[in-house]
Amino acid sequence: MELFLAITISALAMTFIVGVRYLITSGFFAWLTEHKRPGQYDELKPQISREIRWSLYSAAIYGIPTGIVAWGWQNVGWTNVYTDMGLYPIWYLPLSLFAYLFLHDTWFYWTHRLFHRRGWFELAHAVHHESRPPTAWAAMSFHPIEAISGAVVIPILVFLIPIHVSLLAIVLLIMTIMGVTNHMGWEMFPRWLVNGPLGKGLITATHHEKHHSAYRGNYGLYFRFWDKVCGTDLGLGTFGNTADQRSRG
Question: 102-124 burial, b if ≥16 CB within 10 A, otherwise e?
Fold first, then answer.
């Protein structure tokens, strides 16, 4: 009974942390949108309320397995998350970071394509595509079935691939920020970055907006790798509001 209570408390605590992280991060970028592009979300208030509701459901679904694994890491040591920086060579640190991001991106790409198949889309993914256009609040706006598919990735990886706890925190930070900024409905990064070498490999809002408008293609999360390999890269969207374009007013 004590064990069950301890694990439950950890799961609830992590659910609270994930929910607060979502509200703070999405809230900040929503504020930034209002500051940089006044009025963009004015007619989307009912949509935003729905996005927040679905996202808080997702926070619980993400928080429960994360809390269970976190408890196990602290009390049993059953994961490959380590705290001793000298346990592995220095070169392994960026390698482990990239491995987590690439494997997460791979899982996301293929499950995302699955959710666009007939039946799966109507069952679950249609919830996310109700955000037209997406806002900073839409990053975690998923049906519970889709949220489960995303919630298991990092908890599984920590059992398979050793990673320093600080690098794991960076993975979660990148996941959170890219998830939000790719859904803001406008491009916060300058044109030289979006259209340059980095933009040809990384996903930004201009790339992901094309997915939301076309309902197909551009399925990746961090990288354009799988879209390019599989012929599903539709290129960049045309909503025409990169930072450079805004500066010319």
Answer: ebbbbbbbebbbbbbeeebbeeb
pTM of the model: 0.91
Tell me phi and psi for residue 119, to 5 degrees.
100, -60
d(CA 8, CA 6): 5
The helix/strand/coil state of 9 is helix
User: From residue 136, how far is each of 1, 22, 24 by CA, in Å?
Assistant: 41, 10, 11
Q: How far apart are CA 1 and CA 53, in angstroms?
A: 32
Q: Which two tokens stand for residue 239?
A: 């909503």
User: Could you list the pLDDT tens digit for every one of the 249 residues in the chain?
Assistant: 788 899 999 999 999 999 999 999 999 999 999 999 999 999 999 999 999 999 999 999 999 999 999 999 989 888 999 999 999 999 999 999 999 999 999 999 999 999 999 999 999 999 999 998 899 999 999 999 999 999 999 999 999 999 999 999 999 999 999 999 999 989 988 888 888 898 899 999 999 999 988 888 999 999 999 999 999 999 887 754 433 333 222
Q: How far apart are CA 203 and CA 228, in angstroms?
A: 12
CA dihedral 196, 181, 117, 130 (to 10 degrees): -140
> Is residue 174 within 8 Å of residue 98, measured between CB atoms?
no
